[in-house]
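Writing this down once: the sequence line spells out the residues, with the fold written below as integer tokens. I am pasting one below:
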Amino acid sequence: MEFIDKSDIMKGIGPDTTADLLEKAMGHKYFKREGSPGNYKYYYTEEQYKKAKGTSKESEKNNKEELEEKKGNEEELSITVLPNRSVRGSGHFYTFNEKEQESVLNYLKKLVESDKSGIVREVLKETKDKEKYSSSIPVKMGGVFFCIYSSYGDFRIGGGGDNLSSGKVIREKLETILSEIGKFSKEELGTKKETEDPKVKNEEQYNKEKGKKTDD
């Protein structure tokens, strides 16, 4: 009687398990297979695969937008308005203090003219009217996505939901966000204006030259 060596049997069937052999024997095609021998997972349609991976058309679009935005400059700290970004499901994470309120207001006022969507003007009006909840302005800063809105006239930061950073990420970057917002405080804007005002610069130059001539 002739015996068959076990290694010859393994060469014939490979390392697949019984479940994998049955899967192959069923004679149907699958869209994608992942895993290793003995732990394969089969996806029979592209839709099933995308659903399992969380890559629906909407999330694909958002992921693409996010990647494109990050390509620009990951370290860029200026706050940019993203009027087309959904803020559905976002929650309240921070209320600006009195001084910060002024900075946010100054920042939004500077954005009014360049904001073609009209969302900034709308929020400013609703804030002035002290509505319970104003509309939300989706923004990004250095890769962090959040929204600015107001409640009874006080500006807040919102996050989470569909397309905004989580509360954890926002809290980690809160100090940086507040620092950036602080650039629009009355004191900062006043200092900037004073140092960059051409009249001031020209006057300083004039006095300097006048003093030089007197010495001569």
About this structure: The mean pLDDT is 75. The two ends are 122 Å apart (CA to CA). The chain is about 50% helix and 15% strand.
